[in-house]
Amino acid sequence: MRLFAKSAAVLLTVAAAGFFIASPANAAGSNVLTTGSVGGANVAVGDVVTANLKSGTSATFVSGSSSVTCTTSQFTATVTSNPAAGGSAGENLTAQTFSNCTAKITGVSKVNSITVNNLSYVTSINGSTGAVSLSAGSAGPVQATISLQSFFGAVVCSYRPNSGSLSGTGSNTDNSIAFSGQALTKSSGSGLCPGSSTFSATYAPSVDTSVAGSPAVFVQ
Q1: Nearest to 57 by CA among 183, 207, 208, 200
Q2: Residue 1 lies inside a defined structural domain of this protein
Q3: CB-based contact 120:92 (threshold 8 Å)
């Protein structure tokens, strides 16, 4: 029997990633990150931004015909810099969780857990291009560990992004960030785990929980 395991680093995850990203725009006198609208009030350094999976979507980890699907995922990030529009804002991703996960894997009865390791991560949001990058912080590489329950007991494997970082894109339309087919490589764990996997997820909307009413976050 061949056992497949999946994980994401974030992972988010996903996105991935603190990530309140959007398509590029420009508004004179405003910073990269604003609340309520493009050109709205600037997001303050130190503010906390969160996002859940976009309604009706799932985070997926795929290897061939096998997959793990999670219907609940959330990230939390702290803003570390917010320069003038068109620059690159920064965040520290301090938490990312995955739950309500199911496995479509021969020999696996359930997903015990998916844990994002080595937090916090460094996130860069480019106001000119709308691109997001999630890279390692001082605690270690971007990595996620998955525990699956098999016929033989728990099987644990860890995965890291092939390039060492994750890349995402987003839209101001729904204040989302999307990770699509992000390539992961197994860094440790059982030989029953595949050597690679891909991660996809869309988080929306990203909101500033440090502001009354938790307004949506825009990027310009």
Answers
A1: 200
A2: no
A3: yes
